[in-house]
Design goal:
Helix content is 10%, strand content 41%. The protein has one domain: Methylamine Dehydrogenase, Chain H (7 Propeller), CATH 2.130.10.10. It has 2 helices and 28 strands. The strands form 7 sheets. Strands 1-28-27-26 form a 4-stranded antiparallel beta sheet. The longest helix has 26 residues. By secondary structure, the chain is mainly beta. A hairpin with a 7-residue loop joins strand 8 and strand 9.
């Protein structure tokens, strides 16, 4: 039985009412059936999604050796911000084959910050990565730059290196294909700030500077339903700031999010846009939270998928995927095991955790055409979890 057919089966079970059954008995039956459904779905998922290595994948990823990943569903290509090899890794997501490096040697690579030998995050690159609709791949780098390269084939040549004005890494990025605007976050500078870039010619449209006390920025997203950018702002005042590309650079509004605990003490981390424009964020140890994209109202909390760095929405399966360490996200780079949490995007119901052996599990992306799940792991390479036929 597949996960999809199991979901349909249990949906039918919970809707059946036995003759003479009281409301209380019906409620207890539905609860028990739901618990059984989760357990069976977890077992089914673990059996049918077994990881193998992408053919030809680099295997030398070290501590903090890679960052966020991205699948371009239009061309079935997977891209990974690879600090270890100082490049963007590109994989054919239809055949699970490593195609080569993009821009190798043109990024900062994995390096500590000056006078901070243990800080391998705020001066390394590439970091966040995305593609546009012009065949280009964009990534934040470690020296205050955003780098644009040809996404269609491996090669060392880059197209543009765009300074943001910062000195430390540009981390996460989000792309608006309607207005051709890229939003990039500089989370290593003080104060942290956002940069808005016109992707047609590379010129900077403006910056939004946060108060000096703001510590870090996390995964952003662009929402086709609203036309707005959403930026996760972790810290003392956890919130999602909303930016209208037609009225930059100041936020149009902010959504407070009640969180606690979380990745590297940053309470908000992953963010993705699901069906109907619904937002899904990761709220520290509280778990995943789905939000109304226009009001910020919390629709549902999913406690099983807390402390995840990256969240991915796959329209092919209508599911969210959360990359997290089983030992706590603060130890994601060194912990010996991780997992990919799966949530039904239609109902915001937790489906299963797929265990991943190895350290550094914090990045995930899915090819919508075949539901292949890509997970880079320290010292192993890029793993792919493919449904067994």
């Amino acid at each position: 039985m597949s996960v999809a057919s199991a979901l349909a089966f249990f949906s039918q079970l919970t809707g059946v009412v036995s003759e003479g059954e009281t409301k209380s008995e019906s409620s207890m039956r539905v609860t028990a059936t739901s618990i059984l459904a989760v357990l069976i779905l977890a077992a089914i998922s673990a059996q049918t999604l077994r990881p193998t290595l992408v053919k030809g994948s680099p295997t030398n990823y070290g501590l903090n050796g890679f960052d966020i990943s991205w699948v371009d569903n239009a061309n079935q290509k997977y891209y990974l911000a690879d600090r270890t090899n100082n490049a963007i890794d590109v994989v054919d997501a239809a055949t699970d084959t490593f195609l080569g490096f993009i821009g190798k040697g043109q990024y900062t690579g994995s390096k500590p910050c000056p006078n901070r030998p243990k800080d391998l995050r705020h001066c390394s690159g590439p970091n966040g990565v995305t593609t546009d609709d012009l065949g280009h791949v964009w990534a934040g780098d470690g020296a205050g730059n955003v780098i644009e390269a040809d996404a269609t084939k491996p090669g060392s040549t880059i197209l543009r290196k765009i300074p943001t004005g910062g000195k430390f890494r540009v981390d996460e990025v989000a792309y608006d294909p309607v207005d051709h605007v890229l939003m990039a976050s500089s989370d290593g500078d003080s104060p942290v700030f956002l940069t808005f870039i016109d992707t047609t010619d590379g010129h900077v449209l403006g910056h939004y500077m946060y108060p000096k006390e703001q510590d870090g920025l996390e995964q952003p997203a662009w929402n086709r339903e609203t036309g707005w950018f959403y930026q996760n702002v972790p810290g003392a005042k956890n919130r999602i700031d909303v930016f209208d590309p037609h009225h930059l650079p100041n936020p149009a509004m902010s959504f407070p999010v009640d969180c606690k605990g979380g990745l590297l003490d940053l309470t908000l981390s992953g963010l993705a846009v699901g069906p109907g424009g619904k937002l899904m964020t990761v709220c520290g140890t509280v778990g995943g939270k789905s939000l109304n994209p226009r009001t910020g109202r919390v629709l549902k909390t999913i406690p099983q998928v807390g402390d995840a760095d990256e969240v991915w929405f796959d329209p092919g399966s209508n599911r969210y995927f959360f990359a997290h360490s089983l030992h706590g996200a603060a130890e994601a780079a060194t912990a010996g095991a991780g997992a990919i949490g799966i949530v039904n995007a239609a109902t915001d119901q937790f489906i299963a955790d797929i265990p991943i052996e190895g350290a550094g599990v914090h990045s995930v992306a899915v090819n919508a055409a075949n539901q292949h799940i890509f997970v880079p792991v320290n010292g192993k390479g890029i793993l792919v979890l493919a449904p067994q036929k």
